[in-house]
């Protein structure tokens, strides 16, 4: 369904000239590429989820239970719709950052109001830390916005965000089925993986359509929500998206504290662009980041809490090594 709807969305985007034109160094494609890809993903995701919820035979795995309630599903759909509105407007009018952030905030508040939230976090020294409602809501709000903007910042190479969403959603399927026995979350994760895989066929290099603002924010939003309702604690979720999250955090810090400018003003210093600068092709850079996500996400399935902290330290070490390689390469380039 996603593959077919993306074909229709692509045709409409070309007809209406809603395209991403290569007008800056960050835009490495050579010709205008249609936007609005996220609209096709959301429409297929919503249609299949509603159809599954109301028309699936009783013998099929359930989409709701005592943990995942119907109001949670409704909240996810409404929140996704807010992201579609904001993404659609941005793809057409190129909204300013303060206008863009309105829609992720509305989406995040919607799922919090539906009852989705971080109820507890793992204590590395044993047991859990139970969160009261205000703290849970704040932590959920910060977490979802962080992951939304992580995938938004990461969306710079063909197929990168859509492919990593497929990988991470698939890891959550295994996590939900074999470790936390959360069947509804596994069904949702399968839907997310399937929708983004259907889009990846169009989006892999050379891309015939881009995710656009709607798709890049929807990817992070769905992964963030899945991480919460699957029972995956922050260490597990951060291992799956460790390198992009650290890259995003460093980029924001550098722009704010070192360059004294807006953190939302784009540049070519993200990790995916840096990989290109050291000689990677687009596909090589994408597969490298796919591999990092799959390796550390896979490890997260089997590691204990204290071991996950060590794995997160390894991710930080990899980022430091990469930063050194990028620095040396740029220094030689200047010479």
Short description:
The protein has 335 residues and is an all-alpha fold. It contains 14 helices and 4 strands.
Describe the structure.
This protein is mainly α. The chain has one domain (2-334). Helix content is 70%, strand content 3%. It is built from 14 helices and four strands. The chain has a two-stranded antiparallel ribbon. A two-stranded antiparallel ribbon has the order 3-4. A hairpin with a 5-residue loop joins strand 3 (120-122) and strand 4. Helix 7 runs parallel beside helix 9 and helix 10 runs antiparallel to helix 13. The longest helix is centred in the C-terminal third of the chain and has 30 residues, at 305-334. The protein is globular and about 55 Å long. The mean pLDDT is 87.
Number of strands: 4
Percent helix range: 55-70%
Q: What overall geometry do the principal axes of the alpha carbons give?
A: globular
Main-sheet strand order equals: 1-2
- How much of the polypeptide forms β-strand, as a percent range? under 5%
Poorly predicted runs are none
Mean pLDDT: 87
Taking the alpha carbons of the first and last residues, their distance comes to 52 Å
Largest sheet: 2 strands, antiparallel
Structural class: mainly alpha
User: How do the SSEs run, as a string of H and E?
Assistant: HEEHHHHEEHHHHHHHHH
Number of structural units classed as domains: 1
How large is the count of helical segments? 14
| Rg computed from alpha carbons, rounded to a whole number of angstroms | 19 Å
């Amino acid at each position: 369904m996603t593959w077919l709807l993306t074909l229709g969305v692509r045709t409409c985007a070309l007809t209406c000239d809603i395209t991403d034109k290569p007008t800056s160094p960050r835009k490495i494609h050579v010709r205008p590429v249609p936007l609005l890809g996220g609209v096709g993903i959301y429409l297929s995701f919503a249609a299949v989820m509603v159809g599954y919820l109301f028309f699936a035979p009783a013998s099929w795995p359930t989409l709701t239970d005592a943990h995942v309630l119907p109001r949670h599903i409704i909240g996810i759909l409404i929140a996704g719709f807010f992201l579609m509105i904001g993404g659609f407007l941005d793809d057409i009018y190129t909204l300013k950052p303060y206008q863009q952030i309105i829609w992720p905030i509305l989406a995040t508040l919607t799922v919090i109001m539906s009852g989705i939230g971080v109820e507890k976090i793992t204590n590395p020294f044993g047991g859990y830390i139970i969160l009261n409602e205000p703290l849970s809501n704040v932590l959920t709000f910060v977490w979802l916005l962080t992951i939304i903007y992580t995938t938004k910042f990461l969306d710079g190479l063909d197929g990168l965000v859509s492919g990593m969403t497929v990988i991470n959603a698939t890891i959550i399927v295994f996590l939900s089925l074999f470790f936390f026995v959360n069947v509804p979350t596994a069904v949702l994760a399968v839907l997310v993986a399937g929708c983004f895989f259907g889009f990846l066929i169009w989006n892999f290099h050379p891309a015939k359509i881009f995710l656009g603002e709607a798709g890049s924010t929807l990817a992070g939003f769905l992964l963030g929500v899945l991480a919460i309702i699957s029972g995956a604690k922050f260490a597990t979720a951060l291992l799956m998206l460790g390198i992009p999250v650290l890259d995003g955090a460093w980029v924001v810090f550098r722009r704010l504290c070192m360059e004294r400018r807006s953190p939302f003003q784009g540049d070519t210093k993200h990790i995916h662009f840096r990989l290109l600068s050291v000689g990677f092709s687009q596909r090589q850079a994408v597969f490298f980041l796919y591999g990092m996500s799959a390796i550390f996400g896979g490890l997260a399935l089997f590691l204990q809490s204290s071991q996950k902290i060590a794995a997160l330290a390894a991710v930080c070490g990899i980022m430091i090594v990469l930063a050194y390689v990028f620095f040396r390469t740029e220094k030689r380039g200047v010479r």
